[in-house]
Amino acid sequence: MDAVAQSLLAAQNKAEALFADVVAGGLIQPGKLESELTADIHALAKERFGVRRHWHKRIARAGPNTLLTYYDEPSDRRIAEDDIVYLDFGPVFEAWEADFGRTYALGDDPAKHRLIADLADAFEAGRRLYQSTPTLTAGALYDFVAGLAAPRGWEFGAPTAGHLIGHFPH
Fold it and tell me: Which of these, 38, 102, 109, 111, could form a disulfide with 60 (CB 3.0-4.6 Å)?
């Protein structure tokens, strides 16, 4: 593995640890504003990992706000007891970005918890396809990921299916 790949993997591992700390620290709580959760995670990233900047805006969205795109600017919403909460952060560790998102289900709604499990399965299926298909196009990856929703009883509604991480691949 070359130095760039090692650095990206180290940043990813730190982001995974940050999100594990978010959960372990009980930061995602009903009654908290999305903006408060964002500030709490930003403070944790700075304290635990020395993160001083993020390469894109930090997003914490709950309930109906989770259906909005990155570019939407919804009103600050208070997290409810049975919400889905989506987090999207781009912490920069040393010089390396770790664009990282996770979705969580609060409460006991089995459909919401199934959605969270299905999202993780879909992400892994997309990763496996990407890693095993050197000639894969972005369009084919999008079609594949979007096609995973319906067989599981979901509707794919995102305008994108993710993006690569590296030397600003956008």
Answer: 38
User: How many degrees, rounded to 5, is the angle at CA 71 between CA 92 and CA 126?
Assistant: 65
Structural contact between residues 76 and 34, judged by C-beta atoms closer than 8 angstroms: yes
pLDDT digits (tens, 9 = 90+) for 15-28: 899 989 999 999 99
152 DSSP 8-state letter: G
Q: What local confidence, expressed as pLDDT, does residue 160 receive?
A: 66
* Other Cβ atoms closer than 10 A to 54: 16
98-127: average pLDDT: 93
For the chain, give me the number of helices (H) and strands (E)?
4, 5
Of 82, 41, 78, 85, the C-alpha closest to 62 is 85
User: According to DSSP H, which parts of 25-154 are helical?
Assistant: 34-49, 110-132, 138-146
Residue 104 phi, psi (nearest 5)? -130, 150
Model's pTM, two decimal places?
A: 0.85
Mean pLDDT of 142-167: 81
Are 114 and 84 in contact by the 8 Å Cβ rule? The answer is no
